[in-house]
Amino acid sequence: MENPLKVIGTSSSTCGSCNSGGCGTCGPSPHASKAPVAFNRREFGYTVLAASASALLTGCSQPKKPVEQAGQPAPAAPALSPDLAVVKTSKGTIMTTLEEFYKMGPGPSSSHTMGPMRITYDFFQRVSKLPQNQLQRATGLKVHLFGSLSATGKGHGTDRASLAGLLGKAPATCPPEFLDGLAANPDQAYKVTIGPKTLDLTLKDIIFDAPKGEFHHPNTMTAKLLAGDQTIYELEYYSVGGGFIEWKGYEPPDKGQPKYPFDHARDLKKYLIDDKIPLPQLLLQNEMAISGKSEKDIWEFLDQVAEVMVRGVDTGLTVESVLPGPIKLHSKAAALQRNLKTTAKGEAARAVTRVASYGFAMGEENARGHIIVTAPTAGSAGIIPAVVKSLRDLNTPTQKIRDGFLAAAAIGYLCKHNATLSGAEGGCQAEVGVGSSMGAAMIAQALSAGPKVVSNAAESALESHLGMTCDPVAGYVQVPCIERCAYGAVKAWTAYAIASEEIPEQRRVDLDTTIDAMALTAREMNSKYKETSEGGLAVSVVLC
Ligand code: SF4
């Protein structure tokens, strides 16, 4: 049988959130020539702007007609420069690190909002270190967006995310009110102090430049420090997918070799079951060896990830709003929480409602463009926060939650390495399916289940998402994405409940087999169901 993994393509050194620079909320894949793609969600977003204008005139928009007709080749994805680190793929041992995997920044798009904010924050830090005599001359900062960032950046909030980073706001900690304020007051000037100079910046300093041209990467942007019309310092950047960034001359950081190399669950089994090494210990040792970080640094990072997630859920549970975009979708999380306190639903319904409300809360925060963590992607970013919040409800100790994060990451790494985390390559099974599988492993690990139960729980959750398509309505990460985050979290608990009660050895399907099945399903899935908004719900829902 043909190996499906050859077709999907893999990488151990790409964006950390997907296997190829496309993780459901990231840009086109460097493997795009291997898998048929039509317009991705970002490219579609440009069409949506025109469609939205039409809808305003008519009061109603028809479902989008499929662009790609049967038998016609799909449009080719833009070529990527072979110089980009994201393109230099490799097989072999998994080398992904936690910081590459769990990335913090604004939603709703890891490539169009999180990446640009990380870029401008990087630029802010660089210029802050320039010699004082250069900074004395500074009069302004400007950012130019090119390619897909220019074409669809408005709908994704690329400009406000870019401005926030330029103003020195760190992507992981920027308050939601600040991001909302940038969008609500587009003409307001904001002060940023760089060395001896304080500069005024507005959204007009983020320029939507040429959407088409010869670019190093489809998501290219340049940042400049200016003295009048002279450029003091300039750097060209690329938002290469999953929130990962590169720049002209970028060299990926050196990595060490893992203590316990693995690229399949069966490799882990040898260490965990035959050699009796606990999974969190194995993953911690690998992380320290690959990243060079200390144990303390790793725990601090995971604690920060947990705090960002829980803060996002808590915010989402209290805010009621119509979410941005043409769908005019009302948020649900706060209402679910409120009703939970007053309605008598019975034990099962109350438990499910509580977990679902957490998933809605973070999914809605992503849609609002607030700070999220890719786990594994922005579209599926509601699942693990819902799991963390519900584990905290059970007073799960902090160290157990850290262990759970490690187990969840291991599942994500295996799916990234052997299949895909990209809705554009594998449909929603690769985003919400993997997120739910990670959540199931996290619960099992945090609640001290054995390695077989952890693996079975992950398998069970992934198995129950196989074949799930990606068909976001109007190209926005809202319908079905938010509700799927709620379901993904509930299914994570369901998978754990099944795996922890069954006789582990009697499970017929192992995790590697299901990951391979996801890769095979991804390869054979019609491209209309791979983030193109050309099939399923996207062409069935009428926007009025
Ligand atoms: S449908 Fe799923 S894969 Fe597609 S954008 Fe939404 S969450 Fe991501």
Can you tag this structure with a few keywords?
binds iron/sulfur cluster, alpha+beta, 21 helices, 544 residues
General description of the model:
With 544 residues, the chain is of the alpha+beta class. It is built from 21 helices and nine strands. Helix 4 packs parallel to helix 7, helix 17 (432-446) packs antiparallel against helix 18 and helix 18 packs parallel to helix 20 (511-524). The longest helix is centred in the middle third of the chain and has 24 residues, at 295-318. The protein is globular, with a radius of gyration of 22 Å. Residues 1-77 have low confidence and may be disordered. The structure holds iron/sulfur cluster. Iron/sulfur cluster binds next to helix 19.
Q: Nutshell version of this structure?
A:
The chain is of the alpha+beta class and 544 residues long.
Our estimate of the beta-strand percent is 5-15%
Helix/strand structural class: alpha+beta
Small ligands present = iron/sulfur cluster
Strand order of the largest sheet: 5-2-6-7-8
Tell how many strands the DSSP assignment holds. 9
Largest sheet: 5 strands, mixed
Distance between the termini: 48 Å
Low-confidence runs: 1-77
Radius of gyration: 22 Å
Mean pLDDT: 85
DSSP helix fraction:
40-55%
The ordered string of helix (H) and strand (E) elements is HHHEHHEHHHEEEEEEHHHHHEHHHHHHHH
Number of helices: 21
What general outline do the C-alpha atoms trace?
Answer: globular
